[in-house]
Amino acid sequence: MSKKNETTILILAFLITAAILGGGAWLLRDTISNLFSKEPNSFNRVSSSSGKRSSLGETILVQADTTPEKQAGVEAFAKGDFASAIAQFQSSRQIQPNDPETLIYLNNAQAATKNPIKIAVVVPIGGNLNVAKEILRGVAQGQNEIHQKGGINGRGLQIEIVNDDNNPETAKQVAQELVKDNSILAVIGHNSSNATIAAVPEYQKGGLVMISSTSTVTTIPERGNFIFRTVPTIRFEADTVSRYSINMAKKTNIAVCFDSTAANSQSLKDDFTSAIYADGGRILEISCDFAAPTFNANEAVSNAISKGADGLLLAASVERINLALEVAKANQQRLFLLGSSTLYAYQTLKDGQQAVNGMVLVAPWHSEAFKGNPFPVQAKQLWGGDVNWRSALSYDALQAIIAGFKSGDISRQGLQGVLSSQGFSAQGATGKIEFLPSGDRNGAAILIKIEARQPSTSGTGFDFVPLLSK
């Protein structure tokens, strides 16, 4: 008998004994399954301490939104009992109508018997749950609408939810696994620019279309013709906020707080610096790096004021919004505040309160800025409240994919060809969706302002209000 066979027998003997003595039949079943599983594209994909990282409907990834009905739904889905899964997910939706994971699983179950087209959406469930849910709401709304219209050329659409925690190494591993799964024809994601940069080479090498709806960093290394995005780049954001600062707010001496570990934050600082000088202003260098061990909000503001600043740009990363709000509070309304699109989040209103009142932010979308577009009204009906730009731009990413597949060539290469074609366009939450030859969105950013309101739509006493409408 070979040493390999002897080792296997010893392991099995040990497990059987453990199962008998400890009543742990589950241990025996799960471990044997892991030892001998040969399925390369199983849903476990990249494991994590919290469990599975991907699911079509057989696992709850957003544990915070668990209900007994949702749990029963995923158990039925895992068994292939889609009728029961549909009924349970519908019941869970009655309890938690703003849960996007349940709506996606419901539509996945309904599409299971309709020769489904399958794509993935990668979100940071463990990195920033609110952001993950915002992205999922836009994708879920688009999926729900296309199913109500009869699907894509009569076929259903299934969306696999994948969690990368906004971690670059995990994002790379996730991308590698999605590329291997030939049933996945497109990917919406990733959220942070750091995660996107790590994943892009894998999608490009594997010939799998990736459309990011939230990664705004101007330059993406190793980018190729399979990489797109529906969010305007930071260059557009920088130009927009610079022109407003100089021409409208009449603030010409600007200091910047940023996160040196976040690609989008560093990119905004660089692009904004170039834009300010081009528009006739200047940047005042201060020590205000959210990632620095020595970061001190009070010192940063005092330093900016002592150097003659009349404005302060908060170029926060998603992970460090709280530190940007510390700066806003330390500012005490002394310097005119500008903000990146990252700060267009409920957290800014809830935790910032009066400290952020009057702050002007640059953003790709606001529900009141695109007059006549049905998306915000439909979103409010579906979720019971307003959604933000991450939902809108993720909805747009799915609309681009759906339009690409409707051309008739439902394949990875076919989708890339359609999206890259000169005449391609689709309609979304932000109007017409068109891509530049680079794969970037052909569009501009808008400006929004934080205002005190009673009552407020957000319920915080403050709301985001567009300065300009399109």
Automatic annotation (TrEMBL):
Domain Leucine-binding protein positions: 116-438
Keywords recorded for this protein, A-Z: Membrane, Receptor, Signal, Transmembrane, Transmembrane helix
Taxonomic superkingdom: Bacteria
Keyword Repressor: no
Classification via Gene3D superfamilies: 3.40.50.2300
SUPFAM superfamilies for this protein: Periplasmic binding protein-like I
The keyword Transmembrane appears for this protein: yes
Transmembrane segments annotated in the record for this chain: 7-28
Family: Belongs to the leucine-binding protein family.
UniProt-recorded name of the protein: Extracellular ligand-binding receptor
Lineage of origin: Bacteria, Bacillati, Cyanobacteriota, Cyanophyceae, Oscillatoriophycideae
